[in-house]
Specification:
Helix content: 40-55%
Structural class: mainly alpha
Largest sheet: none
Mean pLDDT: 95
Radius of gyration: 20 Å
Shape: globular
Order of helices and strands: HHHHHHHHHHHHHHH
Amino acid sequence: MDQKSLNNPYPDYDGNPGCSQGLFDSDGMLTAEFAQRLSGKISELVAVMENGLKSADPRDCTSYTGWTGIALLYLHLHEVFGDISFLQRALVHVSRSLKCLTRRHDVTFLCGDAGPLAVAAVVYHRLQRAPEAEECVSRLLQLHQRVVKGSGDLPDELLYGRVGYLSSLLYVSQHLGQDRVPTQYIQQICEAVLVSGESQARSFHVQDQSPLMYEWYQEQYVGSAHGLSGIYYFLMQPGFVAGEEQVGRLVKPSVDHVCRLKFPSGNYPPCVGDTRDQLVHWCHGSPGVVYMLLQAYKVFGEARYLEDAVQCGEVVWQRGLLKKGYGLCHGAAGNAYTFLALYKLTHDPKHLYRACMFADWCMNYGKHGCRTPDTPFSLFEGMAGTIYFLADLLQPMKSKFPAFEV
């Protein structure tokens, strides 16, 4: 057993409808009783979180550990429950973020200024404050040229790089309408990511195995946060890359290169060349790679991608209840999204059942002796992320890993 995870105490889904009784029906609709339990726990945790946030860093504007992440949670709760007070709280938190933007070179949704601007645009839009929404969108789009041209040190990955800026544009277009972000903006970023990937593949002399390659801090990361699988997930979205043939010629063989890195267990290494099969997190390992595999299956239709994705689900079921806690980036809530992603594509009740079991684990927050994260109430490390997942489970077919899933 992996020393980084705790034993999974739950019986697995055995194919018998009785297994899911009390959780959801044959159409995947949660029972009133289970939905009520989720809603009750959400209210309880929100109160704990609000109290805990009184001692949070007042200057952290980011989505990852700061106030924008809390605003993002409240926006999500407003979507799920329709309660206007959640929207008001989102406004309070995102306004705080706008007052302390990094004003550095961080241009991403999760760790930079793009996140606060994108989330503020959506909050203002929902509150029908059009001029303020417009101003945020325009400030967000002003970062575009810097991302496309990129100084030499701008990486391509999700947390700090081009794809992280791309995800903020997608967030705006998903919530404010496709026409708010010009298509060519998205395609120009993808083109810059492709050019960068081809150049790095050549400099690492791996272009024969993988036409694209990316590094961050001198490591060729594999996972979704810093690595290849997160980048390829975005490059395979329909229409993001202007030339369709480039997806087949450059992205597909690069995806296949990641597939060849799979451990016998079905998990993936944190970096190319790393032989340690230890990490089962959204940021490193199967719970992040699964999105690339499912997208490859949708785009190329080859069964092996889906088979590998289902294997990711097995890894997460066995090793996904982490000693690190209940968060999104490296915790049980983030890992549970693996099951929701698989469920949305396959409609196999096994995956929904497993997501419900991980939710049960998360609803016993703090009772498993897990480590307390550095930012215990934040979206990506702490309690806000767990609440986000529990709310998403109320509408499984609409669920999306925040700030990542398209």
